[in-house]
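Recap from last week: sequence in, structure out.
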Amino acid sequence: MAAKGAPDPGKKIIKILTEKQQTIVTAESCTGGMIAAALTDIPGASAAVYGGYVTYANAAKSRMIHVQARLIRDYGAVSNQVARAMADGARNTARADFAVAVTGIAGPDGGSEKKPVGLVYVAVSSELATVVIEHRFGDLGRDEVRKASVRASLDLVLQVLTSDQA
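Predicted structure tokens:
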């Protein structure tokens, strides 16, 4: 997913996790498994990628990774709170060292004035903390919003991993 000539964050993620003998799990809504695919495209990823959850339906978020239904009801599936709960829930359910979660509105439908198409929340959970970043990619078209979400997710994972290298 890296631009031509740019270093691939996925390769760096796999390298760091493999060296530290740590694992990552994904929890994806609007990207439908694209983050897991980007990571598992890398040779040797099996040493670091535990697996992934595609929790597209709200019920899947609750049943598979234990996101509280009240969070979805009170804040909406596309929210900081649900992204955080997805990341924490996936990490805890899988017993992985890290989790990356994404929830958003890829379009072309589903947007509103408060939550427009292109609104995406990315979260990374570790034992130390859970970081959530809001992105407003705009109405780039479904495919581009999803690709931008994958890039943002991998970039955030890499930031967390490299800031944690004490």
